[in-house]
């Protein structure tokens, strides 16, 4: 004789409990990921001798903006360079890479996803293979190719405009657009250029925002290429200047963390500006994938 099963909890009762458990797990994970950021913020407001005190570094004591003022004052002369000039170089390079990349990579992806021409699949396969090639493996060949262009803003930006991963992101999104939209545009007399800029681009704001944020984040933190190509302080980007500032002896960790906050701040501003479209792009990719 079969043993009778215990009655299950009603679905209406299980749903709130499961939702609570999900939020609890996500809250714990979010707290763990935010701990380094919290330590960065608190450490940037503390004297150097209190930064490396273990868990007591999280205590909000002796907070001030002296470290920020010291960093800005220390980088405000011809001998040390100017902080805002380093910031401007990084912003200029990131702007060129992001805007140029959005234009070049979106058009390349549109040609490979919506236009029909011989060899299209082979070219797209090559793009996928390029995603597997790390930049470190081609950094030295690029260094010798562009050695006569060292210490310029141009060389810091141009090699990174075309990006295989960005092309793949655009390609995946464009393939999800119904072909009937372009067919209607062609019936109205629109060619490929007009179709792309007047119809496809306005419909693709989420993927443009996602690519812009990821490209800016990658380019803003670029370090290896500037180390190889930049020796002139007048064109030094901010991450490279932070490594120089950190190498000064003795290290002042409060000032170093303050420099880190100033380095992260533009990324947070860009993300806050594109956040709505970025979330839409991630959500639509998850649904369509």
From TrEMBL:
The lineage of its organism: Bacteria, Bacillati, Actinomycetota, Actinomycetes, Kitasatosporales. One of its GO terms (biological process) is transmembrane transport. Residues 87-274 form the ABC transmembrane type-1 domain. Coiled coil: none annotated. The keyword Transmembrane helix applies. This is Carbohydrate ABC transporter permease. It is a multi-pass membrane protein. Keywords: Cell membrane, Membrane, Transmembrane, Transmembrane helix, Transport. It is found in: Cell membrane.
